[in-house]
Amino acid sequence: MNIGRSKIIAIVTGFISIFICIAYLLLITVFDFRTYLNDQLSNIT
Question: Is the pTM of this model over 0.70?
Answer without folding.
Answer: no
